Amino acid sequence: MLFRSSAAICGAMVMLAISATVARSEIVAAHSSAVVNAASGDAIVGAASMYNPFRPGWREGGSNTASGERYDPSVWAAAIRTSLRQKFGGVQFGARPKYALVEAAGKKVIVKINDVGPLTPGRIIDLNERTMRHFDPSLQLGVIKEVTVKPLSGDYWIPGPVG
Questions:
Q1: DSSP character for 112?
Q2: Using CA atoms, how far apart are residues 102 and 111, in angstroms rounded to an integer?
Q3: CA 66 – CA 41 distance, rounded (Å)
Q4: Could you give the CA distance from residue 31 to residue 87 in angstroms, rounded to a whole number?
Q5: HEC profile for 22-61?
Q6: pLDDT, tens digit, for every residue of 88-130?
């Protein structure tokens, strides 16, 4: 009986420790604007559009990104103009993804830069579908003008909206 009680108490302590660790990691997951701004590089300003190679009629890219990952419309990701590749750490096959802060219309989001492309002239970044919906929920605009993109230093950012 004493052994069962000790095991139950030990199990409860382990669960408490795990839940505290999970809670702390969830708090760390939300990047504050101050933290993101402190880690940002020089800003690039231009226009953004959306790409999704799985939609009929879309001419850009294929199903695999420059990093070797498969295009996923449900993650926070983007393709940077090929001429900006080095500014974003040389997005390349098999390398760790790079991250950027994208700002437009009073909204900020961290995206994983996992692709490059020759993009339409005047565009600096192509957002995947989820990221574009953050700025244009109906996807009616097609192009977002006056987008600011800043490379983020470090490899361990959590993509998504910045609070």
A1: E
A2: 7
A3: 22
A4: 22
A5: HHHHHHHHCCCHHHHHHCECCCEEEEEEECCCCCCCCCCC
A6: 776 766 667 789 999 998 999 999 988 887 667 788 999 988 9
- Give kind and range of the element (H or E) at residue 130: helix 129-135
Sequence letter at residue 143: V
Cα–Cα distance between 20 and 40 in angstroms, integer?
30
Express the helix, strand and coil content of the chain in percent, nearest 5 each: 30, 30, 40
CB atoms within 10 A of CB 159: 19
- The sign one gets for the Cα dihedral 41, 46, 47, 49 is negative
Of 66, 69, 41, 49, give the one whose Cα is nearest residue 125.
49
**pTM confidence score:** 0.71
Residue with tokens 């990691």: 25
